[in-house]
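Dig into what follows:

_____
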Amino acid sequence: MNPASPLPGPVDAATTLSSVAELLEVLWGGGRDLAATPVSVSQLRVLYVLAESDGINLRTLTEILASRPSSVSRLCDRLEAVGLLQRGASPVSRRELELRLTPAGRSFVADLRAAREASLGEILAVMSPSDRRALLTGLTAFRAASAAAAGPAAGGAAAAGVRTA
């Protein structure tokens, strides 16, 4: 932190946030050890997007993930093979397929989120109420800035696979 300023600058905050993100990765193990069905980080992102935007087509998912159609299709193939995703005919267009989480997929995401929230809850319980309030204020501002930086074309919070509630 700049000794001349009582407030952290963007670089200081980025350094701290990066270390917190690394801690969360360690705590959560990338989500792979919290469930019987291991998924990659990329597959997990697909699951998060579909949890918020169930029924979208492959083109929309590809845009949200900012990836190539062939790569996203392979991700969906793998998720379908383990029973977390299903493809179905679109009622809007016979040429499109909708992507939906299966009941097992919805359960997987819910269980993963519950386990992660329980893990975080243990740590947050050690913090004072004023520190938790400050953290919540900062994270809310961070989420808003992230959505603004992603721009309207990226689809806001759903584009990042972030739950808004």
